[in-house]
């Protein structure tokens, strides 16, 4: 496959591993991977692989792409999946996909099939902000003969504050949803009040008309 596409494995970046249906599967990973180039001239080209990796359509807005990146990175963050090489690999792929789709200029080139290595190495390209530290490989386990106190001390590591992460990236969205629900509730109550007032007015009007007809009927009866 490498010989056919004219690419060499050394020097390839992780963002060049795209999801391709039917491709050979790597051990320990449930997704088919195949090396693809960004340029059309390098062979087959997929314009949806990075979108599918983030779980968004190719018509998604930048805000939707950003929200999908935060959601995916939250699920596969190494601190949340400690010791899982699969989660670390997925987290890296998600970050690299957002590096392209999170930039309007790089995304435009990617959609047109014109994205190149030089574009990703340009001075204006910055790594996508990750929620915390970059993926880490699990450290070696302490030997069985090691003192339990030392083993417990060595296993201590800073915990990832998921509540702070969620509030930092989703707090504004949650606040907007809360205000929207409050407005809907206020509108519903206003409509109910109007409906109740209208019902009471109709009832009062009907009662007045009935009373008027009875009065006229009595007056006409006295005249006869």
From TrEMBL:
Q: Which UniProt keywords apply?
A: ATP synthesis, Chaperone, Membrane, Mitochondrion, Mitochondrion inner membrane, Transit peptide, Transmembrane, Transmembrane helix
Q: Does the keyword RNA-binding apply?
A: no
Report the subcellular localization.
Mitochondrion inner membrane
* UniProt membrane topology term: Single-pass membrane protein
Q: Which Gene3D superfamilies match?
A: DnaJ domain
Q: Where is this region: Disordered?
A: 117-156
GO BP annotation list? ATP biosynthetic process
What is the name attached to this protein's record? DnaJ homolog subfamily C member 30, mitochondrial
């Amino acid at each position: 496959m490498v010989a056919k596409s004219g690419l060499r494995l050394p020097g390839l970046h992780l963002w060049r591993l795209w999801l391709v249906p039917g491709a050979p599967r790597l051990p320990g990973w449930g997704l088919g991977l195949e090396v693809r180039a960004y340029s059309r001239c390098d062979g087959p080209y997929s314009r949806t692989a990075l979108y599918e990796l983030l779980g968004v359509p190719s018509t998604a807005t930048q805000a939707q792409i950003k929200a999908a990146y935060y959601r995916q990175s939250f699920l596969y963050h190494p601190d949340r999946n400690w010791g899982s090489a699969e989660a670390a690999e997925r987290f890296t792929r998600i970050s690299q996909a957002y590096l392209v789709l999170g930039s309007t200029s790089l995304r435009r080139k990617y959609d047109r099939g014109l994205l190149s290595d030089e574009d990703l190495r340009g001075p204006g390209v910055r790594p996508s902000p990750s929620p915390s530290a970059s993926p880490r490989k699990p450290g070696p386990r302490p030997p069985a003969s090691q003192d339990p106190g030392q083993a417990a001390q060595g296993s201590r590591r800073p915990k990832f504050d998921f509540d702070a992460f969620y509030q930092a990236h989703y707090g504004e969205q949650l606040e907007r949803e809360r205000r929207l629900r409050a407005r809907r509730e206020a509108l519903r109550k206003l409509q109910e009040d109007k409906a109740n007032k209208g019902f009471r007015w109709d009832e009062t009007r009907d009662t007045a008309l009935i009373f008027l007809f009875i009065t006229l009927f009595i007056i006409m009866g006295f005249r006869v």
